[in-house]
Design brief:
Blueprint: E1 2-6, H1 11-22, E2 26-29, H2 36-46, E3 50-53, H3 75-95, E4 105-110, H4 138-149, E5 156-161, E6 164-165, H5 174-179, E7 183-185, E8 188-189, E9 192-193, H6 194-207, E10 212-215, E11 222-223, H7 224-235, E12 242-244, H8 249-258, H9 265-271, H10 276-281, H11 291-314, E13 318-322, H12 327-339, E14 344-349, E15 368-372, H13 378-388, E16 392-395, H14 402-407, H15 409-430, E17 435-441, H16 464-483, E18 487-492, E19 494-496, H17 505-514, E20 519-522, E21 528-533, H18 534-547, E22 552-556, E23 561-563, H19 564-575, E24 585-588, H20 603-606, H21 616-629
Parallel strand pairs: 1-2, 1-3, 3-4, 4-5, 5-10, 6-9, 7-12, 13-14, 13-16, 14-15, 16-17, 17-18, 18-22, 19-21, 20-24
Antiparallel strand pairs: 8-11, 21-23
Helix pairs in contact: 1-6, 2-3, 3-4, 7-11, 12-18, 13-15, 15-16, 17-19, 17-21
Amino acid sequence: MLWLIYGSAGWIGGQCRDLLNVAGQKVVSGRRVTSLKDVEEDILTYKPDRIICSLGRTHGEGIPNIDYLEKPGKLKDNIRDNLLAPMFIAQASMQYSKLAAPIPTLYIGTGCIYEYANPTDLSHPFTENDHPNFCGSSYSTVKGATDLLIDAYPHVINARIRMPISDDPNSRDFITKILNYKKITSLPNSMTVMSDILPILLALTHDGKLGGRVNACNKGWVDHDWILKTYQEKTGEALDYVLEPVEDQNARLAARRSNNVLSSDKLEQWMKLLSPETRKLYYTPHLLPDIKTSIENICIHRANLKSSSSQESSETRRLLVTGGCGFIGSNFVNHWLRTYPEDSVINVDKLDTCSNIGNVEQPNSPKYKLVVASINNKDLMLHLMKQYDITHVVHFAAQTHVDTSFGNSILFTESNIFGTHCLLEASRIYNKLRKFIHISTDEVYGEWPAGSCHETAVLNPTNPYAATKAAAEFLVKSYGESFKLPYVITRGNNVYGPYQFPEKVIPRFITTIMANEKMTIHGDGKQVRNFIYVTDTVRAVDLILRKGKTKMIYNIGSKDEIKVMEIAAILLKIMKPDVKLEDSIIHVKDRYFNDCRYSVMIDALESLGWKQEVKFDDGIRMTIKWYTEHPDHWQNEVQTST
């Protein structure tokens, strides 16, 4: 589904964009709206399935003590952005009905359109049937007019946001604002926790069955003083402010502007109409979240953020890396020791066939220690975490050779599932990790004949190896939900480069050509894979460790989609250009089930700032160079390729 967002660069629009990306939706940004034609041209260009209007200037533009729209000469800006632009978007999305049905549209409105004659009388919360009655500012007057006029468009959800609050501090966030107040008048208010309400609004718009006004607020209400007391209690931060008594006449008059309690009954009723598929897609709750519980959790989250930020700036990281003598793991260890020389790396590897202590380039570094052991020893893992005061776990260790999984699948269960479970249990008992990075694979998605799969795609593993990796992922997620483990999962494409054991297709073909032997091709060799150079994968894991959001899954992939037969031809052309391909290959029986194609979307990873740096033409030449310069690095090569 394609979403067209007006205001995607703004605070609320940006949060909508990020949530849609997580849900696997396609998102495009609309132009600056100055006329009906602007929106019509966007609709004809993009042909969106859904539209979001998150435009509009607010009072202070996030700047304390500056009422931006009340300044002389700003009425035109107010009318253009808060009235005309939303009406143009509503009209254009309705006109689209000439071609099909009206485009379901979400308009982010405001609840700052009411005032109580008596701010202490809350016996009748404002419902969607109450007309706007607050004209104390030009902003609220214009927004109130928009609220009424938008009723003419039944395909538009008019979501009244009230005193929005975000998980992280932001100048537009109400908690951040109130922390800067020196004086407050503490009266009840409905509020909108964005991480609670936006997924509900997106899900409702996605289903496209409803329209009209809805108070988009959490259940219940709180007063300002309660927020400040809760913030102090949960964060331990002392605040300096004066609470003005509500009996004061001036305070009562000022409070009429900031005191709104809205009924959330309609939103609760709408939530019951969501389809199960859409509810799952956007992770929407079954019950409307309570405002007090959500604010308490946000205060705890901000305290943890501040603590983590302080630790990151004042302390070095101490990483427990599993499988750090394997291919990707060793490249990660080498990268980390070079890039962050003050950090420590504890490498746990049982040194099976695919591992090599020579893969680590600085084995004598005082910041590096190798522990030869199996991660299946939970007590040892816990001991290492305590002994070295581990801050992060990066879990590479796994059995990964698909062919072997067909003949000895129990080994994969023992290593990939039980081993991960032991590591998770040790992490739970230790309970001091800042982040647990679980390295998974794109093979958990199963075959993907066309297009690319998003992180929210249903897992459909088709071989024992992929099934054990999927099972391990579910264990990781369960520990995040049950024990608040701060996990992140990565799912990567086929990786190639230096230090890879020659059981995988690229190093196997290279070493076979070096030995003047024939390359073995499974089946017809038309299987398609995306290949990514190992340094790009390592940079992705580095970025995810430092900036990735917990409870997130990040695909790691490239645009280099190549058939197995094409790889053989490319390598032969570079290494032995005078030799014919048909004279250098031999076809062998295909696997029991050989997925023809994998491909993943990497929007979430790119949103962190990652970009592929090494193209296949360059990466393959660097890989050939390394293997030709290190012919004796691997003493025990396998005889089949993947």
